[in-house]
Structure to design on (163 residues):
């Protein structure tokens, strides 16, 4: 019996993106309303990354089932890899920003720290799904993307792992 490991990972990626979006939006709102400086670029980048992730997970999770022609194995690999790179850059930038602060207290600082930690977790999830996408692309190297996906049983989540 085949089990699609990517689908639960996609759900977790989607939920974590919503949480990080909420946390970073709270921090950005605090900076924009309570200080004279605008919100930090690292916070803004994680807001972008969260929105990008929501859109990409919708594509990665739904296109194999509802639009197989759009679910080419290289497109899935590219979107997964790019999203993985965005999360890596985002959490490193936020961690560097937080490390450079003279003081960090209160709910806003806690929200920013939580966003950084969840960013690491999100990055690790995308490392796993990108690795699964690479393995799928290598397994179906000679076949075209859509036909290879159908032959491998890819229906949701973008990659298939047989267990």
């Amino acid at each position: 019996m085949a089990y699609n490991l990517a689908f639960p990972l996609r759900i977790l990626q989607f939920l974590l993106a919503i949480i990080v979006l909420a946390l970073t939006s709270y921090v950005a709102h605090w900076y924009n309303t309570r200080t004279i400086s605008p919100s930090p670029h690292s916070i803004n980048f994680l807001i972008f990354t969260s929105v990008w992730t929501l859109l990409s997970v919708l594509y990665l999770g739904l296109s194999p089932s509802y639009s197989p022609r759009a679910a080419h194995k290289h497109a899935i690999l590219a979107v997964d890899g790019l999203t993985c790179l965005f999360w890596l850059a985002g959490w490193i930038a936020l961690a560097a920003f937080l490390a450079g602060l003279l003081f960090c207290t209160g709910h806003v600082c806690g929200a920013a720290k939580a966003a950084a930690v969840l960013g690491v977790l999100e990055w690790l999830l995308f490392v796993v799904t990108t690795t699964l996408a690479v393995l799928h692309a290598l397994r179906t190297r000679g076949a075209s993307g859509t036909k290879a996906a159908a032959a491998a049983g890819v229906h949701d989540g973008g990659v298939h792992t047989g267990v």
About this structure: The chain is about 75% helix and 0% strand. Confidence is low (pLDDT under 50) at residues 147-158. The longest helix spans residues 106-139. Helices lie at 6-34, 41-66, 73-99, 106-139, 145-152.
